[in-house]
Amino acid sequence: MPSLTLPTRNSRTDEQQKMERYVIPNLRNACRILKLLGQDTNGLKAADIARQLKIPVTTTLRIMSTLNLEGFARKVDTRYELGPVLIQLGNASLAGTEIREAAIPILEKLTGTTAETSHLAIPCDDRSLIVAVQDSPHPLRAASRPGFLAQLHCSSTGKVFLAYLHRNRVEEILANHVPVKRTVHTQIENDEVCEEADLTRKRGYSLDDEEFNLGVRCLAAPIFDSSGAVTAAIGITASTVRFTKDRIPEMSTAVRAAARELSMLLGYVGNRPRV
């Protein structure tokens, strides 16, 4: 099977330099601000936004006024948060995601088999974007909602993308998205993340073992498209009380079966991923 040639750092830099000629600086800053607001559910003051993104305060205030006027942001007391227009746009974007529609019946089946919350994620902006969730029947659940962006190093779906899509870019990604040590189990060093990526590829699934949230264990497997490239990841999230370590073989079998089924629906017929 032909191998996938990953772009080198130089080729990526050359392409970025070409694109920079057409960038509108303050439009780009507005995009950066929206991404930042999406990471903080408590909202941010204009001064905090300016400091974190290194944008002049006056420029930040003008951008925030525009975003507020258009409904992309809203001001609550002295803080800004994401606005209601983004809900409509986000729902429209998710509705247009073909893989999401194909995955929903498979997620329902996976949750029925495991009795745990299942989810589908796609790579987005060097992070993992949750696009569909099927809730567990248990009253106590621990899962992110559609639209949530997770860092790659500590989420099960993110680890899949690091292992199969970004294995040669780990250092670059961790530099651009400084890894947060969310729990005592979170691995944030480059060599640790690389070793985990290699382990994920070797066994065919990833494991978030209380690395994103204490008391929560997640397991995910890659989804391949017709060309053999990883295009998404499917996984389950459960309390460690129910998803104990001795259930990892059982859960990995169920998740990998769901991943194979969805991959086949996308036209994947090979036995191995492109590397």
Q: What share of residues is helical?
A: 40-55%
CATH topological fold name of the largest domain: Beta-Lactamase
Biggest beta sheet summary: 6 strands, antiparallel
The top-level CATH class of the largest domain is Alpha Beta
> Structural class, judged by helices and strands?
alpha+beta
Identify low-pLDDT runs.
1-11
The CATH architecture of the largest domain can be named as: 2-Layer Sandwich
| Number of contiguous helices | 10
Oligomer: single chain
CATH superfamily of the largest domain: GAF domain
Q: What string, H for helix and E for strand, traces the elements in order?
A: HHHHEEHHEEEHHHEEEH
- Tell me, rounded to a whole number, the average pLDDT: 86
Number of strands: 8
- N- to C-terminal separation? 10 Å
Number of domains: 2
The gyration radius over C-alpha positions equals 20 Å
- Report the sheet-strand fraction: 15-25%
Biggest sheet: strands side by side, in what order? 5-4-3-8-7-6
- What gross morphology would you assign? globular
Structure description:
Helix content is 45%, strand content 18%. Strand 7 and strand 8 (230-239) form a beta hairpin. It has helices at 9-20, 25-38, 46-53, 57-69, 85-95, 98-114, 156-164, 170-176, 190-203, 248-265, and strands at residues 73-76, 79-82, 117-124, 127-134, 149-150, 206-209, 216-224, 230-239. It is of the alpha+beta class and 275 residues long. The chain contains 10 helices and 8 strands. The strands form 2 sheets. It has a 6-stranded antiparallel beta sheet, with helices on both faces. Strands 1-2 form a two-stranded antiparallel sheet. The chain has 2 domains: 9-88, Orthogonal Bundle (Arc Repressor Mutant, subunit A), CATH 1.10.10; 96-265, 2-Layer Sandwich (Beta-Lactamase), CATH 3.30.450.40.
